[in-house]
Amino acid sequence: MDRKVAIVGQAQTKHSEDTGMPRERMLFELVKGLFGQFGMTRHDIDTFVLCSNDFETGRTISNVFEDTPVGAYMKDETKVEADGAWAVMYAATRILSGIYDTALVVANSLGGSEFRPYLIMDYQLNPTYDRQLALINEPSAAAFQARSYMDKYGMTDAYLDMIAARLLRNAARNPNALRAKADATPEYVAGSEYLYEPLRKLHCYPFTDGACVLLLASGEKAKDLTDSPIWIKGLGDSIESYYLGERELFRSPSARLAAERAYKMAGISDPKGQIDVAEVSAKFTHQEPIICEALGLFPEGSGGEVAEKGLSEIDGDMPVCPSGGALGAYPFSAAGAIRVAECFRQLTGSAGEAQVANAGTAVAHGQDGFCAQHNAVIVLTVEEG
Amino acid sequence: MRNVAIIGVGYTPVFVSKRKDVNIVEMISEAVDAAFRNTNLTPDDIDSITFGNMQTFEGLNLPHLWAADHISALGKPTIRISTGGTTGMSTLQAAYYQVASGLYDVVMAVTWEKQSEGDSQVGLAGIVMPEVMVMVQNGMDLFGGRGIGGMGGGSTGAASYQATSYLHHSGASPEHIDKMAALERTNASKNPYAHLRKATTVEDIQATPFISWPLRYGHTCPTSDGATVAIVVSEEKAAKLADQAAWINGVACCASDPTTANLIEGQITDPAEQQPARIAAEKAFAMAGIKNPRKEIDMAELYNGFAHQSLMWLEKLGLCKEGEAHKMLDKGALDIDGELPTNASGGVFSTNAIGASAMNRPAECALQIMRKIEGGHQIPKKVRNALAHGWGGLFQYVTVMIISDEPRKA
Amino acid sequence: MAFEMGPETRQVQGTWDVTTYKYKIDGGGMKLLCDAMKEKKIRGIRCNECGTVYVPAPTFCRKCHVDIDEVVEVEDSGEVGTFAVEMADMRGNPIEKERISAQIKLDGADTWLGGTIEGVDWHDVKIGMKVKAIWVDNPEGRLSDIDHFEPL
Questions:
Q1: Predicted TM-score (pTM) of this structure
Q2: What strands lie across the sheet with C53-54, from one edge to the other?
Q3: Which of left, alpha, beta for B11 (phi over 0: left; psi -120 to 50: alpha)?
């Protein structure tokens, strides 16, 4: 591949339960802030890739009023309706094609104040059967998956509390996180009420209003714009069956395939050795080990051990979600883009108190669907290579 | 820049008001199967899938997740694109960029709509639902029309405003709209994949009542159930897989502000101006190396939800001079055997499975170039360069593709 | 290859309930306009950089991509930008009397407002025709304070 693509900048809202402002205002201020960082205007952007969801915004064609606030008036724009990680990958293909030199990815959701995310997922259910039966919804399906992993590997739900507590502590070091607690303990997490056993409220992502904007550029342009471009070295995604009964919920073949594709592109043959930090989208705590194991970061079934030994702490062997991850904030379409943005902060040494020392290679992950049916993996590096 | 070609298209067997015999995923799989048949490819040959439709029309969120099993997507990269009326072409453009980027060699673009399973009125009204609610709260007379902001234009909405403005600026008469309508419906009668296939005369059109002058009932498009799939490949693959491929040489998109007079964000654009069309067309021509569109473009497939739009787009996209389109219509230049066959397929005006409608335009261009049109609407002259156009949003999005019989010269 | 539709499948009911959304809309421009209408005036906001006057106003200029807040008054008369004549309702049933609805560019504004036109035969309406607002006697600060437009 001759062309290269890098991330040049990022900005996020302070994620909240309620932004207190209309979506258009939120987007305008966020994008203006990023442009301000670079002294750019909207005319410096060759293409805009938006990411939002009709059922979350309650509007057919959710981007009709998002274009002017992000600066896309009379400009090239398109909209991905999936998790933000896919918007980042699509923007990358636009730049790699050679037709564009700069791309702005803007992903957003008002899933905290406008509409309940579990309902957004209900509308995703097969309308002829699952939606009619109303037996599963997002958290109950996630509970199936949690139970499946625990049964397979003979664990209790204690590891769920440990993972959640770690993420809450990490989130306290993230100025943009919504849900955080600097001294969170597993006991504190275990004190929250059950939604569907074994999943408690604090094991599940919070309903969040928020947005994320990422500025991508081609190789030469990126080096013009910044001294520390972060290179998108690998990307990949894959999808599993919609039908839960046909899947082994305790592992994620699609995350594994997605990672294999991304790693191959990036020249990563030893994920544990070569990756310094991972930001995965685990909407429920039990998903973190499943995804990390699929990404080759930990051995299969090691969720409990990893939690007990603190292997995924910020100063651990393989830091996972130093930002607090999805449990710290999860705006519906923006989430995967936020994971990329957090990797960017790590690799540019701007992650503040959550900084992983000497981070040179990061992996970001996004998901969609029930029990992470659809997974995307992006490898980012400091080295241009 | 890597060259990218369409090597095959798959349609559902028909586009009709109601496919009561299949559910959504079954219907989409029909078009996917047709695409495999028409290209002699199998699911293993597909590197990646792009997928699009207008989901609120069925009330089904992220439908690619349910459809995955049914479109041979399991284990494959999959992405969903949704941009309103332009979705069909945006989805194909996503496939184009995936191949152009060098990351994938064979990508399948899947677009569809099954409007009979939802409520189109809700789907359409849903675009500005919150704005309308605020306007009504502030005294807007939603249907009566008194005061400011009433939903003028009736059920044809802002299209009537657009038509009046177009007639005024171009010198065309309302009868030209009737004529274009009759031409396209007659074209559609030769197209087995069109929805409204009754050969229609100008008198037939003029017998329909005006909904909102100058637009008649006979000037409006149907709502259809159907799906369209296209397979795009790299240059190396095209050489192996197709005798004649259809090369995507120009790709562009432009978005303006919403131009349907919602009162939350005041409209500053004449709906007939369609500046995004000019911008997108110029970009696409430049990319394709087309210096004289009027001479070099041999056919056009335009997104016309309403019959006057075919004439309007020809002018706004630069395929003829301002005010010239209706004269070309009178001369027979827009007929299938004319110098600029326009909507030989019957256009969106005759077939509108809305998520697929903007994909049907490049699909038809590709089939024309590859001379694989089924039915009787194959354009007789050689088609070297075709223009496919998509339109959507609140009268704000335009996408353009230039499709040719040869790849772009380096 | 003639297509024959197969047997009909079962149908089940579903809904998309839009009433459960808590939309947040920026109503500032609408409020500015409605407050002005109480005084039989029309106000919008002007962008300092490009001079575009929006009625009603968003909080930022979409061309210049900057915040805007300069309130300006525009005339309650202007010209017809485009129009349509409603002859049937949303379902296609003919309505009793044709209604002329237009998009009107008020003098001083760059935006188009929708409104109805009375006092003229629809055959005589032309793009560019000058019209003025006819106000109700007791405006309340609502969009209905302008009853209709008439040719000047």
A1: 0.97
A2: C53-54, C42-46, C70-74
A3: beta
Nearest CA in chain C to B255: C62
Helix (H, G, I), strand (E, B) or coil at B130: helix
Q: For residue A197, how many other CB atoms are within 10 A of its CB?
A: 11
Do the domain assignments include residue C130? yes
Which residues on neighbouring strands pair with residue A215, listed in sequence order?
A9, A104
pLDDT at B153 over 60: no
- Residues in chain A closer than 8 A to C26 (CB atoms): 22, 24-25
Contact C20 A115 (CB under 8 A): yes
Residue C27 near residue B134 (C-beta atoms within 8 A): yes
Token duo for residue A269: 């043959």
Domain boundaries in chain B?
4-118+221-401
Of the listed ranges A54-58, A306-310, B76-80, B156-160, the one predicted with least confidence? B156-160
Total Cβ atoms within 10 A of residue B283 = 18
- Whole-angstrom CA distances from A337 to A50, A168, A207, A216, B13 are 11, 20, 17, 12, 39
Rounded CA separation A237/B76 (Å): 7
- Contacting residues of A for C14, CB less than 8 Å apart: 127, 131-132
List pLDDT tens digits, range A34-70: 999 999 999 999 999 999 999 998 888 999 999 999 9
Rounded to whole angstroms, the Cα distance separating B77 from A259 reads: 12
Nearest to A369 among B58, B65, B130 (CB): B65
Contact at CB, A236 and B126, closer than 8 angstroms: no
The per-residue pLDDT for B264 is: 65
Q: Centre a 10 Å sphere on the Cβ of residue B90 and count the other Cβ atoms it contains.
A: 29
Q: Which of residues 24-83 of B touch A (CB under 8 A)?
A: 24, 54-62, 65-69, 73-83
Contact A149, A250 (CB under 8 A): yes
C11 assigned to some structural domain: no
List subunits contacting chain A, requiring 3 or more Cβ pairs under 8 Å: B, C
Could you tell me the CATH number of the domain that includes residue C41?
2.40.50.140
The interface residues of chain B toward chain A in range 353-392, judged by CB-CB distance below 8 A, are 392
Across the interface, of B135, B148, B156, the residue whose CB is closest to C115 is B148
pLDDT, tens digit, for every residue of A161-213?
999 999 999 999 999 999 999 999 999 999 999 999 999 999 999 999 999 99
Q: Which residues contact A132 (CB under 8 A, 6 or more apart)?
A: C12, C14
**Domains with residue ranges and CATH for chain A:** 5-116+207-225 (3.40.47.10)
| Record: contact B212-C115, CB cut-off 8 A | no
Is A223's pLDDT higher than 60? yes
Return the beta strands (E) in B209-256 as ranges: 210-213, 215-216, 225-234, 246-255
Q: What would the mean pLDDT of B127-145 be, rounded to a whole number?
A: 78
What is the value of ipTM here, to two decimals?
Answer: 0.96
Token output for A201: 């409220």
CA neighbours closer than 13 Å in the CB half-sphere of residue A250:
13
Residue whose structure tokens are 């002329």: C100
Domains in chain C: how many in total?
1
Superfamily of domain covering B4-118+221-401: Thiolase/Chalcone synthase (3.40.47.10)
Structure-token pair, residue C123: 């055959």
Where does B274-396 show beta strands of DSSP type E? 299-301, 385-392
B-C CB pairs within 8 A amount to 201
Q: Which of C11, C22, C82 has the highest number of chain B CBs within 10 A, making it the mutation to test binding with B?
A: C82
In a domain, C16, yes or no: no
